[in-house]
Q: What sequence folds into this?
């Protein structure tokens, strides 16, 4: 008997709408194909350290910002876990710290992941510096994950996934 093509999948979440769509896609896949799903949020300490070293943050601000990111990560993971529970699925969640792309790849390697799911581009029509910077960081992380992952990476571009999730 041959080994299943997919057994373990990992969805990367960062709180964006597209990353939550990747989580929903992963939940549907895990349920339909009897897969193990792990959902990972990475506190981007690498970027925070860079900003602190360039004097963008003072130490107190850096610590407050990191704690805020950790809290956000726990909230997003909790939300994702509840989405899975609503479909009768138990998932593993993990909060990591470091460079987003390298921590996603490390987590995937450690859990023998067969495929990584990440959100595609954001469909946000608002233009502002902070949103553009966030998009740039997300695009860089997506590109690095797709380039250096040791397994296939599926980039989810499926805005109608929420409707499909409700009926699945």
A:
């Amino acid at each position: 008997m041959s080994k299943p093509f997919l057994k373990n999948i990992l969805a990367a979440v960062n709180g964006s709408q597209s990353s939550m769509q990747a989580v929903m896609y992963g939940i549907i896949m895990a349920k339909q194909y009897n897969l193990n799903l792990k959902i990972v949020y990475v506190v981007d300490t690498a970027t925070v350290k860079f900003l602190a070293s360039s004097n963008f943050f003072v130490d107190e601000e850096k610590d407050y910002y990191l704690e805020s990111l950790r809290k956000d990560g726990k909230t997003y993971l909790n939300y994702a876990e509840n989405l899975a529970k609503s479909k009768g699925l138990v998932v593993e969640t993990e909060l990591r710290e470091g460079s987003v792309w390298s921590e996603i790849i490390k987590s995937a390697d450690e859990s023998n992941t067969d495929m990584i799911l990440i959100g595609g581009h954001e469909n946000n029509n608002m233009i502002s510096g902070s949103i553009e910077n966030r998009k740039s960081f997300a695009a860089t992380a997506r590109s690095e994950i797709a380039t250096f992952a040791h397994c296939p990476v599926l980039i989810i571009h499926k805005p109608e996934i929420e409707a499909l999730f409700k009926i699945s």
About this structure: The radius of gyration is 16 Å.
